[in-house]
Amino acid sequence: MAHALSESLRAAFQGRVIEDRDALAPHLTDYRKRWTGRSIALVQPERTEDVAALVRWCGEHGVSLFPQGGNTGLVGGSVPDDSGHSIILSLARMNAIVDVDPYNNTLTAQGGAVLASVQEAAARAGRLFPLSLGAEGSCTLAGNLSTNAGGIQVLRYGNARDLCLGLEVVLPDGQVWNGLRGLRKDNTGYDLKQLFIGAEGTLGIITAATVKLFPRPAAQMTAFAAVPDAHSAVKLLALAQSCLSASLTAFELISGPAVALVLHHMPGARSPVETQAPYYVLLESSDAENEAHATARFEALMAAAFEDGIVTDAAIASSLAQSAAFWKIRHHLPEAQTADGENVKHDISLPISRIGEFIDAAGAAVQRVLPGARIFVFGHVGDGNLHYNVSAPAGSDAEAYRAMRASEKTISQAIYDVVAGMNGSISAEHGVGQLRVSTVAGYKQPVEMAMMARIKQLFDPKGIFNPGRVVARQ
Ligand code: FAD
């Protein structure tokens, strides 16, 4: 049976089918190396019509299809399940920048375009594509849209959802919807593209997208500031928003232990400030006027923050290299955590006003489950988004790590209960994938889960696309 399927696939998609074990291996395991699946083959179509043909082939043969971009997703959504009765779809050969229209401020690219190449194409046209995240050298535009990726500039420009004007999508029955419109206004009924954005490949294959571009800033200012507590960070955000308004483009919180971890694991790293603080904020402004205007506004903000006692020390980057060094600390956090050992990760969002209260309550809840646990907090606080990661107590042995792994569900539940009590979300930007598919139902209303299941059933009645992800198998 498996042999016949492979023969049929090879015949239909000559030269675009990868079955070699070694070549397939990196596509079967996710970025965090938590999930490994099995698959008949990986197929790399070259045109939208090939994708449609592959989708129809899957429908005819009852084979599941797992779309995969850069495989940088953090919730196990991009790797196949272990049924072995599936195909991985990669758009690696569909990565062209199709059109850049600087007057309409839009860019159209195929779904397999790597995010950094989209940013570069926009820059060559004198424009900015503001979606920016640590994995931008390998994640793809379609992956970003399918996960509704956030990143470091959501505060000013919004999530991937807000940046998208049009999509081309292959539906589970093989039909192609060409919705590549670059319009800011189009009230002609339901906004269908929004259904596919953030759907994590469960409703359609995104083969191309038209996205918004923006003017490039004339000057950027970056500061690394020590703050006495998380409550002060929230006050600093409010102050920065009133002093800088739309020029404030990034506002990241990093806890003292998280900075210490990076300094320990990143060769040559130095703290930008001398003061050791419980929390730090990395903030950035993008000014439309000029360097002098940007500097004056930014320095006025920092002076006001010192006066209010919500900043105790700060360094303002005096060069692009220094700004990059500040950001390197932020971007190195996931790597430093990996080097430190296993941890239980959470990606939550809250009303910004409740962040300080959450950190206090969640910290107490975690200590009740795992006394001595080390908590590393960082995230896009300007968007109310925290990465809240729990590690075993310092000096733990293998036995303690096993115990932590065994109580992972209890730890997460303790945190999620605090999140839910504050009307937050248990997945801010990483999505549901397979990691949270059984948890999410406990934190959404039954009517929400029922609507999601009906939408999945309507689009994909045979359950071909990414089965068991986002919505539990029917
Ligand atoms: P993949 O991981 O390959 O796939 C992700 C999901 O999209 C899967 O469900 C997959 O099936 C689906 N998919 C992929 N291609 C298609 C397609 N053509 N059509 C339909 N569905 C498709 N995320 C953030 O939001 N903000 C961050 O700041 C951030 N920082 C990160 C930093 C690092 C170091 C890493 C490793 C990850 C980070 N992420 C972040 C997560 C990740 O980069 C994003 O989720 C990214 O958008 C995934 O893109 P990808 O191309 O790698 O998609």
From TrEMBL:
One Pfam match: FAD-oxidase_C
Organism: Orrella dioscoreae
GO-annotated molecular function: catalytic activity; FAD binding
GO terms under biological process: respiratory electron transport chain
Cross-referenced PANTHER family: BLL6224 PROTEIN, D-2-HYDROXYGLUTARATE DEHYDROGENASE, MITOCHONDRIAL
Family to which the UniProt record says this protein belongs: Belongs to the FAD-binding oxidoreductase/transferase type 4 family.
Names of the cofactor(s): FAD
Protein name: D-2-hydroxyglutarate dehydrogenase
InterPro entries, per database record: FAD-bd_oxidored_4_C (IPR004113), FAD-bd_PCMH (IPR016166), FAD-bd_PCMH-like_sf (IPR036318), FAD-bd_PCMH_sub1 (IPR016167), FAD-bd_PCMH_sub2 (IPR016169), FAD-linked_Oxase-like_C (IPR016164), FAD-oxidored/transferase_4 (IPR051264), Oxid_FAD_bind_N (IPR006094)
UniProt domain FAD-binding PCMH-type: residue ranges: 35-216
Keywords recorded for this protein, A-Z: FAD, Flavoprotein
SUPFAM superfamilies, A to Z: FAD-binding/transporter-associated domain-like, FAD-linked oxidases, C-terminal domain
